[in-house]
Specification:
This protein has 484 residues and is of the alpha/beta class. The chain contains 20 helices and 8 strands. Strands 1-2-3-8-5-4 form a 6-stranded mixed beta sheet. Strands 6-7 form a two-stranded antiparallel sheet. Strand 2 and strand 3 form a beta hairpin. Helix 8 runs antiparallel to helix 9. The longest helix is centred in the first third of the chain and has 34 residues. The radius of gyration is 26 Å and the shape is globular. The relative contact order is 0.14.
């Protein structure tokens, strides 16, 4: 009661003061920020895209609940595609008082965000908040000068020579095959592929594999690291951690312990590599093999930096390559004609049962390359991505009734593009866009002898522009070895 007596205004006066304050702010905003945005729209001839219907335009709770249901049902990607189809548009908007979201599957808009207007966007603070405690400040969590420094530090280690160690890939592929039963039983290959790519990536990064597919060659510290890394990785998906969707607002106390296990293990490998660095430099004169942490010693001696970049590459390389292998083998197992044609090509190229030993030999397998291209089209390993506008900018198309006018992206708006939905557009890939057909990538496969697909920004399995995936060439090396 005493607090109430200290407030000098009546209830009526308080309400009137609140309304007046809001009205004053609104007028001020319209005369400043609002006027700037209206002028920007006029200069760039921007029009609004079609809106996704929402029953709660204030907080967007129905949209958030719909997203939660999609995640629970594992239909996020197909539900996003349906939004474009229901709206009959390739660019749609969703807005509330919380923020504005522009969803698109237009190649020109992807090009603008990723390339021509690259400096107008950031990866957003939410990604940094989620990933930095786990991975550190590396190439996936930084923008601007920090990102550029990471990119330049890592680029030399991803040229064709450095990542072309086919014998190393092949040895881990043999461990993979040893874990597949030959008694005709049905087996889930995906967990094995995740183990395989973790084994390969750890050897490329640290010089020694964690050998998840061959426990006899592993050690207790490596096994503990694998468990902790897997737990932390799963925690990035709210559906797969101990706290479920409560993880959005609550901290999982187990995560810090798992982070420490991951960091300590990598730090120990870095210190081991530092002690053996001179020997590595001498051996490099006679070998093209690359070990990332050794290569990074030539550019920095900061343990936290080397750890962060290594973990960033480990996370990105492991999951994407395993997904590509899983999707490819899924269709091979269900399409005898595709399997037969691939088998014929491989047997013709390597009749002596010896696997390919050079990148040039791998490139000679045109149908295998078409198979992987088609897998990446229908099941892109990075199916959705997004950026936050850091200044007022423009998407080239998507506005107006016909979707052909520019769209204004206000500072703070979030652009989300769906590679999954774009790769299924019938106007870009034909009426059979939903079908798995590797032949579409090959020349002379039609009665008219037409050329195969020649793609640009409508095909984005590895993003594009300055942030295009550094490890994209690994898709030309690791999956072919396994499939072959």
């Amino acid at each position: 009661m005493r607090l109430l007596t200290l407030w000098p205004f009546s209830l009526y006066q308080t309400i009137l003061l609140s309304i007046t304050s809001y009205a004053s702010y609104y007028v001020y905003w319209q005369l400043t920020t609002g006027a700037q945005r209206r002028l920007f729209r006029k200069i760039h001839k921007c029009k609004a895209p079609k809106k996704w219907r929402s029953y709660d335009p204030v907080f967007g709770l129905d949209f958030i609940y719909g997203l939660y249901r999609s995640v629970s049902a594992h239909t996020v990607l197909s539900d996003m595609q349906k939004r474009f189809e229901v709206t009959n548009a390739h660019t749609i908007s969703f807005g509330s008082l919380i923020g504005s979201l522009i969803m698109t599957r237009e190649p020109e808009n992807c090009k603008a965000v990723l390339s021509t207007s690259f400096r107008d966007y950031s990866i957003g603070e939410q990604r940094k908040k989620v990933l930095i405690p786990f991975l550190g400040e590396g190439i996936l969590e930084t923008d601007g000068d920090k990102w550029h420094a990471s990119r330049e530090m890592l680029r030399p280690s991803f040229n064709k020579t450095q990542i072309g160690d086919l014998p190393m890939f092949g040895s881990h592929a043999q461990n993979l095959l040893k874990n597949i039963p030959y008694d005709g039983k049905t087996i889930d290959l995906q967990p094995l592929f995740f183990q395989f790519t973790l084994d390969v990536a750890s050897e490329f990064l640290f010089g020694e594999s964690v050998f998840t597919l061959s426990p006899a060659e592993s050690n207790p510290q490596a096994a503990e690291f694998v468990r902790a890394f897997t737990y932390c990785n799963a925690s990035l998906n709210a559906q797969d951690n101990d706290w479920g969707f409560l993880a959005i607002v609550m901290t999982n106390p187990r995560l810090k312990k798992k982070y420490k296990i991951v960091h300590d293990f990598v730090d120990s490998l870095i210190e081991k590599a530092r002690a053996n660095h001179d020997a590595y430099e001498k051996a490099k004169k006679y070998s093209t093999r690359c070990i990332l942490i050794h290569e990074l010693f030539d550019r920095t001696d900061n343990v936290a930096t080397i750890r962060a970049e290594s973990l960033n590459i480990l996370l990105a390389g492991r999951d994407t390559t395993a997904a590509l292998l899983s999707n490819t083998l899924f269709h091979l197992a269900r399409n005898p004609a595709i399997y037969a044609r691939l088998s014929t090509e491989i047997m013709a190229a390597f009749p002596a049962t010896e696997p390919p030993s050079t990148i040039k030999e791998l490139k000679s397998l045109k149908y295998l390359r078409a198979l992987l291209n088609e897998s990446l089209r229908l099941y892109p390993v990075i199916p959705e991505n997004g950026r936050e506008a850091i200044r007022n900018t423009v998407l080239p198309v998507g506005g107006g009734p016909d979707g052909k006018d520019p769209v204004m992206m206000k500072k703070g708006d979030f652009a989300l593009w769906s590679v999954w939905a774009m790769h299924r557009r019938t106007d870009l890939y034909g009426e059979d866009a939903e079908e798995f057909r590797p032949e579409r990538w090959l020349d002379g496969e039609t009665e008219e002898g037409e050329k195969g697909l020649r793609v640009g920004w409508e095909y984005l399995p590895f993003n594009g522009g300055p942030r295009i995936c550094l490890g994209r060439k690994c898709s030309s090396h690791i999956p072919p070895v396994v499939v072959e």
